[in-house]
Amino acid sequence: MTTTLLPEDAAPAPEPGPAPADRDRASQWRLVWWRFRGHKLAMAGLVVLSGFYLVALLASFLAPHSTSWFDEDYIYAPPQLPKLVDTSGDDWNWGLFVNGYTMEQDPETLELTHTTDPDTRIELGFFVRGESYSLLGLVDTNVHLFGPKDPDQPVYLLGADHRGRDLLSLIIHGTRVSMTIGLVGVLLAFVLGVVLGGISGYVGGKTDGLIQRVVEFFMSLPTLPLWLGLAAALPRDWGPLQRYFAITVILAIIAWTDLARVVRGRFLSLRTEQFVTAARLDGSTRRRVIFRHMLPSFTSHLVASLTLSIPAMILAETSLSFLGLGLQSPVISWGVLLEQAQNFRAMADAPWLLLPGAAVVLAVLSFNFVGDGLRDAADPYR
Amino acid sequence: MTDMEFTGSTLTAAGPAAPPLLELSGLRTEFATRDGLVRAVDGVDLRIPPGSTVCLVGESGCGKSVTARSILGLVDPPGRVSGGHIWWRPPGDGERVDLAGYGRTDPRFRQIRGQQISMIFQEPLAALSPMYTVGDQLGETLRLHRGLSKAEARDEAIALLRRVHIPRPEQRVDEYSFQLSGGMCQRVMIAVALSCEPALLIADEPTTALDVTIQARILDLIAELQADTGMSVLFITHDLGVVAEIADEVAVMYLGRVVEHGSTEQILTDPRHPYTHRLLRSVPRLGSGRQRVLPTVRGQVPHGARRPAGCSFHPRCDHAIAGVCGTVDPAALDGGDGHEVACLLYDDAHRPAGRTLPLTVVEPAPTPEPAATAVTADRPPLLDVRDLRMLFPVRHGMFGRTTGQVHAVDGVSLTVRPGETLGLVGESGCGKTTLGRCIVRAETPTSGQIQYRDGDGDPVDVTRLSGGALRRYQRDVRTVFQDPFSSLNPRMTLRQIIGDPLVTHGIARGSELTDRVADMLRRVGLSPDYLDRYPHAFSGGQRQRVNIARALILGPKLVVADEAVSALDVSVRAQILNLLRELQDEFQLTYVFISHDLSVVEALCDRVAVMYLGKIVELADTATLFTAPKHPYTEALLSAVPVPEPGRRTRRTRLSDDLPDPVNPPDGCWFHTRCPHAVAGRCDQPASPPALETVAAGHDVACLRHAELHLDGVRADRP
Question: Which family does the record claim for this protein (chain A) (predicted)?
Fold first, then answer.
């Protein structure tokens, strides 16, 4: 009789990869991370995104200039290439520098054109003194990561815009708004979607019917006219950032519907799982069943869908600002910067004005890669 | 036998006179998985002679299905056939071809699949598209492979449906798969498979998902069609009873290799490989009465990526030769009579002196149940179910109007005595699961009462309980679920899963909870070291032990086990049944054991209730019910169970698989449409639905003709 009480096997099946016992004890998140790590593109995306948010956090330190800095002498100045060694003289002269500009004025149109002048040399340095700012809102300082050693020298690594502002500094500052302003909206949509979808799926019956009709109503609203209307309807005396924030919140109230449907579906299929019945028979209250037994089994999917909805918000910001409906100067965001590229002549003269678009593409792609990687890794028990 | 000469055999030399239709030699199929290279099929040799049925037997994970799929090039990536030959000799021209040389997408496969070799699968519903009618799907095969016109194909489809004994084929040809029962769908699949008159039919567990009654009919049909067409059948099953029923030759597989091969007679009466031995003994046999302890196979089938060195069975083998079986790879040895076995015990070079053959199995003889069990009829019942009904509305149309009701449980009355094991049996859809769910109050019954009496207290009506009183009841009455995979939350550790009831009932937390859970794990035969592991680290049998631990942690009085062992392999099943029995003695438990497997019920239960369409048709103690049933349905159920003994393919009571619509049950006795003993004008009268009446002490039957009929039990037709 004792023989049958023996464990069926000395130990659960050991598996290669991480130490076998670890794998058996690994929590869901550990397993997700192990699988996510194997996804190269997603890991690259994660690195890029971490970089972007670091830039957003330390924008004033990383950018050579503030958003309000401009020099009308250098309107549409082209990008300069940083060089390490100067061979123009007799000997090799080491040190980071850029070439300066020579200016010409068209006698008929009075237009200024800039060309890089290989003979002038503007020395660049790290941790140079420049405009004052307050780092993270805590420390007042005027140290910038890099910049011209002489603050009055013109340095435009990515070129200048129509007012003679440094595009690189603008893109760095724009990261802050572009990468964050959507988050509140996404988070709001997420919470709404999970809660309403969850109620719909778990309770079922009439409640489910009602919530689903509401979902269908919101899904039938055309978004672009709504944006236009909202942009016009918001109080005039609000600042541009405030107005845009209000728009994203309103968009979120419409955007929760997709997630609500997904969550409802998951709840419906989970409701019939035996472990949910088991939890109910174990004496768990309804709240405990939902939050302790059901939600954890698809949080990883939720995180993935959350990651995938952030780029949508970034794109929305960009396109709205491009149309002139979202953010407006003096607020700096990638979309606002791109607005300058609407002008065909400006485009022909200064193609570098499209560079904020590259930042958008990079950020959106990275979010998508990370989201894909998370989605693939989300269910570690297959 | 001890002196029998075992010689190494080359398979072709030992072959029978007729060249085999299909010959696998050294077939290897590998899967590159994250856990390493899994050799699912690792050097399989197998011959299928024309016109015969070869069975592949083994537990899950032994590579039976992959072998079959390899033949037709149906192994999906990352799997691939990596070695060996699949010699196929097409009937007629006789030039043999090697299918292993064809790529997965080779167009020549299309000629062979469907036309020369057909395959049927375990899940008939999943194999038929719900978007097309039965006729469309049959017709498509006919038009593609036989070039028939649309009208001809339809006529031929009807003829084929008639041939597989589908009633009213002219109507059924226009129905969709979801309108048919599982048995009917499998018949349709067989019709599709037969439409091009294949020379070989590969049947991959075709009856596993079906009820025994339906299974018996499908097996009959395959045998009958084989006799008609002369095709060969490669039949894959884990059920040795089915083997006895249908096979000419048997190949026993273990971890991707054939360990024993012989005629059905040889395998079933003279098993040579220790694995076959154990497999045969761990199946509870119908007719052997209530058993104290079932013999088991130690351990479980290891994961394919972790094949033990030497003989892959040696870690579980009672007869392993120390130092030899773990290092030497056994080759197939022929006993001279076509009975091959891959075991070193039969190899004179390795068998140590003193070991005798055949194997003698050392184990305690199955002791019959001691007469004085804890079951006492005079104590008040623990549970008294009175006229219980559970109706599910059937909704139709856009606004969900209720157009009818399914009587899942329809006026059931029964008592459960303290300390007994009550079995609930019946075909799927008979309401046994719903009855179990009502008892544990996972469902609230529509009407009726369930009186629960705890000790000497006053009975309470469970159907009216709610809130705290319901939670107290659910502490006493627990359930063990069927599916060891979906019943454990994959996101929780064993500590959380088993300890959760203690938390929700406010019994224990912190270190006391850990102690209790560890103690419980030990009692169900798991190591307390597993506390912080997640369910994905465990096998089916281990998970079922966790399920049992979760049910018992609250110290219940009654445990409802709903098909608790049906998802498990035979060797593990016996382990779990023994565990349930031991725990019953240890904790003075009362069981309600729901199962469709009559041999398991016979081995475990004191009394058995047979259900049909939501009603109990017979209720008696196990011995009486199995030896002297009074209801024709019970008789039919018993006779449909295949028994792993050759020469038992006798005349059986066969039930039609055309079940009545549960929304509109027939007039009179609900069973009369399928009953072989029904009398027209009596059993089908609207005035005469039979009620459950007591025919002897503790024996209730609901049959109008119970007094006149003399029905056979399992021992009656035993030689």
Answer: Belongs to the binding-protein-dependent transport system permease family.
B133 Cβ contact partners less than 8 Å away, ≥ 6 residues apart = B173, B174, B175, B176
β-pairing, B558-562 vs B477-480, is parallel
Secondary structure element (H or E) that encloses residue B481, with its range: none
Looking at this predicted complex, what is its ipTM? 0.72
B181 at the A interface (CB within 8 A)? no
The predicted-structure confidence for B446-475, as pLDDT tens digits, reads as follows 899 999 987 667 888 888 888 888 888 888
- Compute φ and ψ for B441, nearest 5 degrees: 60, 40
Query: How many domains does chain A fold into?
Result: 2
Chain B residues within an 8 Å CB radius of A9: 299-300, 302, 539, 542
Range of the structural domain that residue A102 is part of: 79-158
Tell which B residues from 36 to 75 touch A, by Cβ distance under 8 Å: 36
- Which of A128, A158, A188 is the endpoint of a domain? A158
| Residue A307 and residue A205 share a domain | yes
Give tens-digit pLDDT for A127-170: 877 777 777 777 777 777 777 777 777 777 777 777 778 888 88
Taking the Cβ of residue B293 and every Cβ of chain A, the question of whether any pair is shorter than 8 Å is answered with yes
To the nearest whole angstrom, how far is the Cα of B238 from the nearest Cα of chain A?
20
Domain coordinates of chain B in residue numbers? 122-197, 383-612, 617-719
Q: What is the pLDDT of residue B653?
A: 67
CATH for A187: 1.10.3720.10
- The answer to whether B472 faces chain A, any CB pair under 8 Å, is no
Task: Note whether B536 contacts A: Cβ–Cβ < 8 A.
Answer: yes
- Mention every residue, 6+ apart, whose C-beta is less than 8 A from residue A203: none
Interchain CB contact of A7 with B (< 8 Å): yes
* B504/A282 touch (CB, cutoff 8 Å), yes or no: yes
Cα separation, B584 vs B599, whole angstroms: 19
CA distance A283 to chain B (A): 6
Rg from Cα positions in chain B: 27
Furthest-apart CA atoms within chain B: distance in Å: 81
CA dihedral B43, B48, B53, B55 (to 10 degrees): 0
What three-state secondary structure class fits A231? helix
Contacts of B475 in chain A (CB under 8 A): 283
- The answer, for A280 touching chain B at a CB cutoff of 8 Å, is yes
Q: What is the pLDDT of residues A356-381, one digit of tens each?
A: 888 888 888 888 888 888 877 766 55
Q: What is the CB neighbour count within 10 angstroms for residue B581?
A: 22
Assigned fold of B383-612: Rossmann fold (3.40.50)
The residue type of B227 is A
Inside any domain, residue A294: yes
Query: Which DSSP category does A331 fall into?
Result: S
Residue of A nearest to B501 (CA): A282
B298 close contact with A: CB closer than 8 A:
yes
Q: Are B619 and B634 in contact (CB under 8 A)?
A: no
Contact between A4 and B296 using a beta-carbon 8 Å cutoff? yes
A236 and A87, same structural domain? Answer: no
Is A239 contained in some domain? yes
Asked if A1 and B293 come within 8 Å (Cβ–Cβ), the reply is yes
Would you call A25 and B534 a contact, using CB atoms and an 8 Å cutoff? yes
Whether residue B373 is predicted with pLDDT greater than 70 in this model: the reply is no
Going by C-beta distance under 8 Å and a sequence separation of 6 or more, which residues neighbour residue A27? B534
What residues pair up with A135 in beta bridges, in sequence order?
A: A139
Tell me the shortest Cα–Cα distance from A269 to chain B, in angstroms.
12
Asked if residue B373 lies in contact with residue B606, where contact means CB atoms within 8 angstroms, the answer is yes
Query: Do A221 and A109 have their domain in common?
Result: no
Give the model's confidence band at A37: pLDDT under 50 very low, under 70 low, under 90 confident, else very high: confident
A282 in the same domain as A324: yes
Contacts of B537 in chain A (CB under 8 A): 12-13, 23-25
Residues of B in contact with A286 (CB under 8 A): none
